[in-house]
Amino acid sequence: MIADYCFVSLSSLQKLFRYALLLSIKEYIIKRRISLAAADILNTRLSITEIAYKYQFNSPETFCRAFKKVWNVSPSAYGKEWKFSAIFPKINYQYVEGDDFSLARKKVDIADAYDVFKSMKGTYVICFDIVNLTHINGISRAAGDLAIAEAAKRIDEARGDDMLMLRIGSDEFALVTGLDNLDATEELAKKVLSRNCEAIEHKDRKIELSLRAAYTKIPDEPIRYSDFFTSMHQAIEECKRATM
Predict the structure, then answer these.
(1) How confident is the model over 218-235, as a mean pLDDT?
(2) What pLDDT shows up at residue 235?
(3) Which residues does 184 contact at the CB level (< 8 Å), separation at least 6?
(4) With 70 as the cut, is the pLDDT of residue 88 above it?
(5) How confident is the model at residue 232 (pLDDT cuts 50, 70, 90)?
């Protein structure tokens, strides 16, 4: 149906989708459903069975297996250990001719957070980046997914309940702290980075996982959503160059 709507063959659609987003259509749909299911676990009283069928899994068992592949824990354990759910946000792919493809791939839809940005003018956002995720993905895609989940968990465990956490790219997260003091912001980032080089385990192999942190401030003057999104990525890119 999607291929027909786009006036291309099924094989062309699959190739173009993977080229643009670096994953298959099926993988994208499953990961989006798992993200939405995680939000339901945290924010509703629906049972695991009800959530499984809500997101069109054939059985609770199938859902639990798919969930664990993304979060590295069962749905029931997730509900006890996590506050963050948007591990795989909606991708807002808006390529403009002449733009860098790698930047276009990073754009995700965090428009729902824009009102939060506006309400926290003058406070800091910590931008986190996973070091060498490309290398980890080279081991296997499953290892990369595990690294993403573990990075998210380190940030999620360190943040306050009133702080907004977002995934803003393939290996990047943003923490809207609400803090207007840079020293306090840096201390929070250090709490996450203190776990650098701790290993994750994938198929009996230990893989070191580290993050970088950069800071940007929500300006006091009115901001456009697209401008602030860009400023978060610029902070990360400057941090990468500084650590090379």
Answers:
(1) 79
(2) 85
(3) none
(4) yes
(5) confident
Q: Band of the pLDDT at 230, cuts 50, 70, 90?
A: confident
Boundaries of domain holding 35: 2-81
Higher pLDDT, 228 or 133: 133
Token pair listed for 85: 């759910």
Burial code (b: 16+ CB inside 10 Å, e: under 16) for 182-210 equals eeebbebbeebbebeeeebebeeeebebe
Separation of CA 82 from chain center: 14
The residue out of 16, 51, 81 marking a domain boundary is: 81
Q: Kindly report the three-state secondary structure assignment for every residue of the chain.
A: CHHHHHCCCHHHHHHHHHHHHCCCHHHHHHHHHHHHHHHHHHHCCCCHHHHHHHCCCCCHHHHHHHHHHHHCCCHHHHHHHCCCCCCCCCECCCCCCCCCHHHHHHCECCHHHHHHHHHCCCCEEEEEEECCHHHHHHHCHHHHHHHHHHHHHHHHHHCCCCCEEEECCCCEEEEECCCCCHHHHHHHHHHHHCCCCCEEEECCEEEECCEEEEEEECCCCCCCHHHHHHHHHHHHHHHHHHHC
Number of domain units in the chain = 2
In a domain, 91, yes or no: no
| Within-domain flag for 157 | yes
The rounded radius of gyration (Å) of the Cα atoms in the chain is 18
CATH of the domain at 183: 3.30.70.270
**Cβ neighbours of residue 105 under 8 Å, at least 6 residues apart?**
20, 21, 22, 93, 170
